[in-house]
Design goal:
It is built from three helices and 33 strands. The strands form five sheets. Strands 24, 25, 26, 27, 28, 29, 30, 31, 32 and 33 form a ten-stranded antiparallel β-sheet that branches. Strands 1, 2, 3, 4, 5, 6, 7 and 8 form an eight-stranded mixed β-sheet that branches. It has helices spanning about 1-20, 295-305, 430-440, and strands at about 20-30, 40-50, 55-65, 70-80, 90-95, 100-105, 110, 120-125, 140, 145, 150-155, 160-170, 175-180, 190-205, 210-215, 220-225, 230, 245-250, 260-270, 275-280, 285, 310-325, 330-340, 360-365, 370, 380-385, 390-395, 400-410, 410-415, 420, 445-450, 450-455, 460-470. The chain has about 475 residues and is mainly beta. The longest helix has 17 residues, at about 1-20. Keywords: Signal. This is META domain-containing protein. InterPro entries: Cu-R_lipoprotein_NlpE, DUF306_Meta_HslJ, HslJ-like_sf, Lipoprotein_YbaY-like, NlpE_C, NlpE_C_sf, Pilotin. It comes from Roseovarius gahaiensis.
């Protein structure tokens, strides 16, 4: 395919040469000493980037195989007849390797041709953050051989079994997929109900255990039984005394699982036609695939960002799946299944501390798609779920108090009938109070991502969004 595309593009450039071609010249540099690999491939592209929410249109390119060390000088021929004075044209450059993928690339617009921009430019390329090497095995925490995938089907009290796939990396990141086999009301997997998550792990220095935390509300403890074997513990981290099999095993290889149905908070950046998502819990970055609800996410980003190319924290439901890359080999990418909201002014750093569902002050940010604002002289709308022998909740829209019982099983959550005070409330608090009561009655599931709580109804639709507030 690459040879076919190159041949087509060469034919296109020959047609330009037969007419009247003009040229963009430039130099691509990097800000650090670089020894290019033997198979280095340098590419510079001329693109029409006039439409912010559409893919860039390529007008010309310069390529060189077996590129030496930078800087790289390039000339890009283009047809001046295609240029429109009110359009914006930019140049981008990348250094790739067949073996190592994308090594360096530009992350800013470099304008050329129109609006007073030059036709001779200097481009600064930046190193692309690399994923941990998935081919080099290291022996780390309590003798574990990593990176590796651990799999197995473990016992389940109310299903046919729980099928685990746990990916562990030496940089203390994990991905985990669990499928509850034989569960009838499965929206995720034909075999059963899926429950995927990602997060960080650490080794317990006092015991031969590793602890997974970050995405699940409760830390998950696993005993290290050997370089390639983990054994599940109970929720307090105590050994499970049973004849049943609670072990996950590995053959020493990492075979990454897809992750689906994740509620993710991360920082999005967008330049030309490339969108990147930096996930808050793990710090890993993923290209954003242009499918699903990508367009809704992109429009919200363009509306709420501070400046072109600036990072903006966004909240989405999505999946991490393998997708073709713009350049180089396929990459694990974020597929946005549902855009939830942008979070201007919120950084990733506080999200590494994960809030608990219970005994946390949850400020109500949005219900039924409406942003919730209280009155300045009243309590702000909020919810607290108390963790007691008989679990109770209390909530207010800023006027009356309401309270009642709730039940939680895993990510399933339901609220019982609420009782409370009955004062007359000024606008808009009375309407917010009615919406709150109706919303709590419709809740069937919840998700926590960093310091954000999301309620879902029986159809899986997001019906409320909260933020954890501490030290109030």
């Amino acid at each position: 395919m690459k040879l076919v595309l190159t041949a087509l593009f060469t034919g296109f450039m020959m047609m330009i040469s037969a007419g009247h071609a003009e040229t963009i010249t430039g130099r691509a540099v990097v800000g650090e000493p670089v020894a290019a690999p033997p198979d280095a491939h340098f590419v510079a592209l001329l693109q029409d980037t006039s439409v912010a929410d559409a893919p860039a249109i390529e007008l010309g390119r310069y390529e060189t195989e077996n590129a030496d060390n930078p800087p790289y000088h390039f000339e890009i021929q283009y047809d001046p007849g295609t240029i429109k004075s009110n359009h914006t044209y930019t140049v981008r450059a990348s250094l790739l390797s067949e073996e190592e993928g994308l090594l360096f690339t530009t992350d800013t617009h470099v304008p050329v041709i129109t609006h007073g921009a030059p036709k001779d430019v200097e481009i600064i390329m930046k190193r692309v953050a690399r994923m941990p090497d998935e081919t080099i095995s290291t022996v780390g925490a309590h003798g574990l051989r990593l990176p590796a995938s651990f799999t197995g089907t473990l016992p389940c009290a109310d299903c046919a079994g729980i099928e685990y796939h746990l990916d562990l990396w030496p940089d203390q990141i994990y991905h985990m997929r669990r499928v509850y086999l034989g569960v009838d009301d499965s929206p995720d997997d034909a075999r059963g109900y899926g429950n995927d998550e990602l997060g960080q792990w650490y080794a317990d220095p006092a015991n031969d255990k590793i602890i997974l935390f970050g995405a699940a509300e409760m830390p998950l403890h696993w005993e290290v039984k050997g370089p390639d074997r983990l054994r599940k513990t109970d929720i307090q981290g105590n050994p499970i005394e049973s004849e049943l099999n609670y072990d996950l095993t590995s053959d020493g290889d990492l075979v990454q699982t897809d992750l689906q149905g994740l509620f993710l908070l991360g920082q999005m950046t967008y330049m030309a036609d490339a969108a990147i998502f930096r996930e808050c819990v793990t710090g890993r970055s993923y290209p954003i695939a242009q499918e699903g609800e990508y367009r809704a996410l992109e429009r919200a980003y363009l509306d709420d960002r501070d400046a072109p190319g600036a990072s903006l924290t966004v909240h989405v439901e999505g999946s991490l799946l393998m997708r073709p890359a713009m350049e180089g080999p396929d990459r694990r990418s974020l597929v946005v299944d549902r855009f939830i909201q942008t979070r201007p002014g919120v950084s990733c750093e506080p999200q590494r501390t994960k809030a608990d569902l219970t005994n946390t002050y949850w400020r109500i940010d949005k219900m039924r798609g409406e942003s919730i604002k209280g009155l300045s002289d009243r309590r702000e709308p909020h919810l607290v779920l108390q963790n007691e022998s008989s679990p109770r909740f209390r909530a207010t829209a800023g006027c009356n108090w309401m309270s009642g019982s709730y039940e939680r099983h895993g990510n399933r959550l339901t609220f019982g009938p609420a009782a409370g005070t009955r004062m007359a409330c000024p606008a808009p608090l009375g309407r917010i109070e009615d919406t709150l009561a109706q919303t709590l009655g419709a809740v069937r599931e919840y998700r926590i991502t960093g310091n954000n709580l999301t309620f879902l109804d029986g159809k899986g639709e997001v019906i409320a969004i909260f933020s954890a507030v501490y030290f109030r």
